[in-house]
């Protein structure tokens, strides 16, 4: 037993020494991290086990000692440097603008202009231009007209330089307003007549006149109104000249419808009274001319009757044409004008916006209204309302490019870069445009700013998109993609959009009520109380009937015109006239038969014939001088005379109606431009008609 106890004590001492071993470190050696070692777990001493065979106790096995670690230099790992803080992207700022803000900006300029402080006025004027760009307005017409008024005041005060500067700013505020360019041209002309700036301004004003629907449509209506009025006047004047030329022969035959006791002045008065009945009873212009044509048809040549039929027949279509013109050229007081004002973003349109918001809430608007409302709210910074309206517009027209561009911009301003990028990439694939490609490039840039190095490859995509945009629009400037970042991004002007398509706007420019009213008024004035379905054709049908009646003149022995002295040739007044004779009995005896009348009678008749020819030539000359073409009509050339007369009346009517029958919203073209076409037409038609008449007479 004593031997067994000694062995156990020796085993415990050996285990304790093993755990107490430590590593020795050379202080001059470089520090190295200690190598990991396996932990040694001490085994508990085993219990005594009796061998059943020999009855002796067996000692537990002695544990093996772990080999000591290899000595060497210890390496200490240097701490890793901390990564630099992530650079924050420049903030995206979206400003909200109201009409009150716009009024405040305008008030500051008005006060600065009234103070006559040039520097303050210039600063306030620059603020006007910056505000226009901020709200995405294409034309701030109200502000531009205000600046035009101020420019005129400065011009009257003698400061033409300040007037020109303010007028230039007005043109920048409303580049599509013709009035700004016309006033600027006048100021340029007054400041420097030798320069060519006024020609460029005048050219831009004329181009704007034809490009703006609010000016082009009234111009078309004015031109058609002048032509229709000229047609009406020409018809009346030509029939009046016919009556002056052949009315005497109608009165001659009309006298034989009454007893012999009736005097010619009495029967003539009755005839004139009968012909004036359509005027007395206000039956219309066409019935009055038809009554006159009925009285003259048997005394007119075939060519004269055809001219009369054409002129009277066209009168029936004047109401139809007038109604169509009003319907197709209407713009004022229509939904198109309201949307036009909202789209351009001028001040004072919030009541209009509220009106269409209410209609939109009642689902009484279409694509154009929803798009314009969305575009307006987007420009004013109302992003949630813009998204709602633009989504509604795309629900009605899913493939509309301007609506997609606007909605993608709204997503971008709300921070949804993924949807914005997706929409712009879809537009690039389906309908590429310069605006969409530039916007896509800027979205790529923003994504790199926000997401950092993980999106660096999108800078190459941005450069490619800008390159494609410059191919579509070379005026787009070249911009460095990897240039310095701005301090902040003004979202209102960062991305561009497209306005409502012109065809969608003009589709709403309808005023059927006004068109029907004009059609009814013209029909009542020209045709009279005739059913609307028959009214356009009534004058033409009646004129064709009277044209046929003219061929009955020989059958009923209507009076003819003596081709020598102009006296009536009729068996009712001269029974000795042979049927079909073209001369009266006196002329037959003097010029066709020999030795029938005395020489003195023959001379007297020859003088009468010469006097008749001279009177006819004098009358045609006077009519030609007073009214181009009417000399031709009186001389027996109705077609040429009617054409000259129509052109002459057109020139006179255009000069009289120089202000137009449909007023433009602001000042239109200068008076010189309005009168120039009429003056040119008059100077061409009037001398040519007199020259042609003179050649005919000679």
From TrEMBL:
Which keywords label this protein?
A: Membrane, Signal, TPR repeat, Transmembrane, Transmembrane helix
User: Which residue ranges have biased composition labelled Basic and acidic residues?
Assistant: 79-89
Q: Which PROSITE patterns match?
A: TPR
Tell me the leader sequence span.
1-20
Annotated region (Disordered), positions in chain: 25-92
Q: Which residues cross the membrane?
A: 223-244, 256-275, 281-299, 306-326, 533-552, 639-659, 671-693
Name the domain of life this protein comes from.
Bacteria
Per-repeat ranges for TPR: 367-400
Keyword Protein biosynthesis included in the entry's annotation: no
* Comp. bias intervals (Pro residues): 60-71
The name this protein goes by in its record: Uncharacterized protein
Taxonomic classification, please? Bacteria, Pseudomonadati, Myxococcota, Myxococcia, Myxococcales
